[in-house]
Structures are given as structure tokens and as C-alpha cells.
Amino acid sequence: MSAPVHAIEPSRFREALGHYASGITVITSQLDGEPLGFTCQSFYSVSMSPPLVSFSVMSRSASYPKIRQAGRFAVNILSGDQVGISDQFARRGADKWRGVEWGESPLGNPLIGGSLHWLDCTIHAEHVAGDHLIVIGEVKAISRPRAAETQPLLYFKGQYCNLGGLAV
Fold it and tell me: pLDDT tens digit string along 37-89?
């Protein structure tokens, strides 16, 4: 006997998913000299051999079609002191790069200064999943880690937090 199926209310679904702590990244690329990027918390590893990672992006993203056209991206794993960077890259239509220090990766992707780590990737595959796209990237280069005492930027129950507590 199977359980009855009930429609899932979007607000309850979002609340339930908010109980899963996640790291915060900024996905970046560059097309025709224009730096691109957006904040992303749906990032994860896929495979060790070959080295694959994945992120999800809304289908209506303004940034992702240009990243797809570039065929490459960097994952900037944010540190605990980069709340402002996360907020800045989460905005639509704003100058996301204003005041942001960055350099170029080996593949030519923007690397945000102060990030914990970065991964330089080429687009390996893309899959439609509801109102999002699942993008899989093959990692071509990685950074050396920052100091071990640096905390990651985490998101939990609708707010930024760190490993020691909820307030950043």
C-alpha cells in the first residue's frame, strides 16, 4: 500500500530544504572581456575520475546563457568573511563586479580575491530539471587552499552562519 500523494506547498518545501546547511559559491566566467557571475549554494562534487563537479542554476538566469556560450566557469568557494560578495552576486541587474578584486584563472575565468578555494572548469554536460538546469563541469585546475583557520561561508535556515554558531 502506498502513501497518498499530496501537493507540496512551495513555502513548506523551501523551509524543509533550508534545514540543510550548504556552502556558498560564486560561479564565474568571462565572455568577450565581460566578467559574469552569480551566487550559488547548490554546488557539489560528482566524480573523482574524471574530476567532475555540478551546480544548479535557474532556467531564467540572465548570467548562465553567457557562461554556457563561454563553455567554461570557475567555482569560487567563499570564506566566512565574504557575506558582502555573496549578497552582491545574488542581485539581479546590478553591477555585480563593483569593488570586487579578481584575477584570471588558467582558463580565463574570474577568480574572486579572498575566496577559500577555486576550481577552474569546462562545461561537461547540462540537464534540464524542473525550473533549473543542472550543469556538470570537468575540473581542469584548482587553487591552493588559504590558511587552515579560515572559515567557509555557510547558509542555514535562511541565514548566513559559521561553524561556531549562526551569526556571521
Answer: 999 999 999 999 999 999 999 999 999 999 999 999 999 999 999 999 999 99
pLDDT tens per residue, range 97-126: 999 999 999 999 999 999 999 999 999 999
Contacts of 95 (CB under 8 A, 6+ apart): none
User: Helices (DSSP H) in the chain: which residue ranges?
Assistant: 10-17, 64-70, 83-90
Using DSSP, state whether 50 is helix, strand or coil.
Answer: coil
Q: What is the pTM of this model?
A: 0.90
Q: Which of 109, 105, 125, 107 is nearest to 50 (CA)?
A: 125
List, in sequence order, every beta strand (DSSP E) within the chain. 22-23, 25-31, 34-40, 43-47, 52-58, 72-77, 102-104, 110-112, 117-129, 132-142, 154-156, 159-161
